[in-house]
């Protein structure tokens, strides 16, 4: 049996769902690979590049800013699972002007995506919004601060079902990032300096993850059962609604990247970071095949 470390660099369904299903349903074992799922959320890039990684956004930013030649072999979705959650009365992105927003740092993938979406709405994230930068995944504190009124809005990820949370508290969801910005994101990427894309263990992981994508599309009951592990604060009905709205329509069926979407996203990310777009989608997203 082959062995490999697979690191996730964010928490929640966006990052972990496909790999979690592949692990829990024994798809990795079926493909002859032992996968150690590693928490790389706070690893530096030098440690991360010695593993396969789920975090394609971070891999892309690293390729653009550090010159590390990451390549992507599988893509789970083109629709980032991040939302703007806001107090009552703030119903659109334009309403965030002058408000206090908790958000990821500008040069993290979620923070970069947030800034792109804010700019699309006509807001300068450095001037028009009072941003409070916090660590990725600190969304429980965001909810507390929304309740006590110390912030007006928060940019949150998939450790919750934001529409259910908003309904419970009388809040608003001014925007889902996936409605405004698409990028091939989360899946499997490697740095060929350390791990060959053709390594049998890597290809086994890709095949297993693609089987998990089929479960997501063809077996709602199994998918929702696994989703409830991540969404413990929501009822089964709320989890099913979240699956139907944000997961089933938007996760890929085959792990392939849409290269037109990829090229547009790379340009937008490079522009936001203020760096050259030194890689094309065809170079970065090599998802066409998985060897038997």
Written overview of the protein:
It is a single chain. This protein is an alpha/beta fold and 292 residues long. The chain has two domains: 2-79 and 182-284, Periplasmic binding protein-like II (D-Maltodextrin-Binding Protein, domain 2, 3-Layer(aba) Sandwich), CATH 3.40.190.10; 83-179, D-Maltodextrin-Binding Protein, domain 2. Helices cover 42% and strands 17% of the residues. It has twelve helices and ten strands. It has helices at residues 13-24, 27-30, 45-48, 56-66, 109-120, 139-148, 162-169, 200-218, 220-230, 236-247, 259-273, 281-284; strands spanning 2-8, 33-39, 52-53, 71-77, 83-86, 100-103, 130-133, 153-156, 172-176, 185-190. The strands form three sheets. Strands 7-6-8-5-9 form a five-stranded mixed beta sheet, with helices on both faces. It has a three-stranded parallel beta sheet with strand order 2-1-3. The chain has a two-stranded antiparallel sheet with strand order 4-10. α4 packs across α11, α5 packs across α11 (259-273) and α9 crosses α10 (236-247). It is globular and about 55 Å long. The mean pLDDT is 96.
